[in-house]
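Morning run. Coffee first, then this:
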Amino acid sequence: MAEESDLERTEAASARRLEQAREQGQVPRSREVGAFLVLITGAGVCALLGPSIVERLSALFRRALIVDSRLAGEPSLIVVRLFEVAVESLFIFAPLLAALLAAALLSPFLVGSWNFSPAALAADLGRLDPLKGLARLFSWTALAELVKAVAKAVLLGGVAAWVLWTERGDLLAMFGQSVAAGLANSGQLLSVTFLIIVSAMLLIVAVDVPFQIWQYHEQLKMSRQEVRQESRELEGNPEIKGRIRQLQREAARRRMMAAVPSADVVVTNPGHYAVALAYRSGMAAPRVLAKGIGEIALRIRQLAADHGVPLVEAPALARALYRHVELDEDIPSVLYAAVAEVLAYIYQLSRWRETGVGQPVAPGAITVPDGLDPEAANG
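And here it is:
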């Protein structure tokens, strides 16, 4: 049961899954938004510029229908005339065409934005599989599209019928009007009717956009197994990462132990802590070369003893150095005085070993500023 649960797609798509889908050309899309934007733009432009377009087209047709006797004997002039009429017609409809083009280009920004994906252009032979085609035909997505198409037809058809029924008096009155008045009134009525019908598509858009976004994220949902697999791919296998960290710690420990023989002193809390310090010309302050507790501290003390590095018992200082100073870092200024006592003893010890005169006395209890000794703070 647990394995089946891990294979069910119950987890929301990760950012990487969404990015991969986008690279494959998968983004939420609503065809209804594009259709509505193009149609409402066309309706608006026709409402605003319709009279001007009709007037210019009427003038163009009147000129085009005038027969010039020269055209009968010169067929080439007919072609030129037709070309001129076509170009002028294009200029008349240019505002409408430009507005429709802008609406078509803008519509993807409203849902999903533009997304050019070369992967989406690649041939997919799987789409030619008839079994998969039948599965898509009888899928929930196809059913939803069918329901949406039927609802759209019913809604728009109902709105159109309502508008025509409401305007039936004006429609019947046109039969008694002159041709010019009838055409003007019919054009105005057609524009208003078209605008109302297209506006009704807002309801379809309001339903379709959330549905398409929901469906998109549902299709990209991941199983728990996929989430774990992606996590391993992004962050690496936990076992391998743990092994790498272990090897890194071992390498750092070997480098640290190799630095102990070059230390000037090892400050100890005899049973638990050991910190190796060095201070030479050119250093801004004494530096921690190695530190450890437990078995590592014991190993540091053994290496120090084997290589003649002096050991100084200063429990509070050893604990403060271990807690507050990292490897290869200079000690903080608040510990200068305490470390200076230790180094002064080491220099005196070195001189006594060389001359045999004036054996130094090991420093007594070395104190550190309040708050630096972790045991004192815990106490």
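Strands lie at 9-11, 222-223, 265-269, 273-278, 287-293, 311-313. Good start to the day.
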